[in-house]
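Q: How would the structure tokens look for this protein?
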Amino acid sequence: MRRRRQRKMIGQMLVEKGLISPQQLDEALDAQKQTTERIGQVLVDLGHIETGPLYDTLSEQMNVPYIDLTADPPESKVALLLDRKTAEDNNAVAVGRGDGTIRVAMAEPDDVLAIDALKMILQVTIEPLLADPQSISTAIKRTYKSGEGAPRATAAPAAAGAGIAGMPDMQALTDEIAGEDALGVRVDEEETDESRVQTDRIADITDEAPVIRLTKIIISRAIEERASDIHVEPYQDRVRIRYRIDGVLHEIMPLPKFVAAPLVSRLKIMSGMNIAERRVPQDGRIHVRHSSRDYDLRASVIPTTLGEKFVMRILDKQSIQIGMESLGLSVDMLGIVEKLIAQPNGMLLSTGPTGRGRRRRSTAF
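A: Here is the predicted structure in token form.
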């Protein structure tokens, strides 16, 4: 089973480099409990580190080049390839051209949905670069000071906010996936099964705009519906998409069977899984930014007799930064719980059905 290499924590890396002391890290971790800011920004706010050294270390951690937009501002003609709303929605600015690519400075260069959105708009491969959010915001204001910018692409996905909950959009996307433009071959729904999709074409298929848009709509809609899980389940004649909302699974959209292979393969690519391996279970993780909030999707895929079943658990990074006082316990009960969790040994059980806040309680404890 292929697993991602675990990253070092940014605080640990800064201490190892001698950029901050362990005491400063502990102070920042305590301060972070009172805010939704990331630890790096908290360290900057406390005056323990400058932005440059912090982002140099983040670049090393994420294995993404860092660009200082103050010293290396965007090329005006390239930056204007994106309209202002797209740049602001994705917290990104195009800075230059590479070898067949567009270099884009991003606050979240590992946000695969934002990269997909920019790729569809620019119709070229995106080379993400890391930049601090403040410098991106300043660059956007300078670039679009007169309101200029490329017209917003009509094919932009759910990042534009259009049609996320609309079933006609889903039908249009499946029609595109079935057609010559998406697969390179004409697909007959009555004759199609997973074996019709060639393994050596799967990466090309999943880079096509219809599959990318379909994936984005499924994830974005789940977040907006406040779902805790997304299930992509293959059946004999269809693919069933279900969301777990308040502990109950709801069927959201039935899709044609021929969508299964490109959709699951796209999700596997986003999760860092091996798309060529279909016989063993795999685990991965997807980072998403939606409506200015960060989400982690823990992904798992398992083979079945009808195809691969894909499940994602949605975790809102900001919502888990909570204190015990937000759990709604009475003062007396809160005191009892605090005494229990302060014990050096023992067990505290947090029970209940899915979607009833067990992880929230455990995190607060």
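The longest strand covers residues 293-304.

The radius of gyration is 23 Å.

Upvote if useful.
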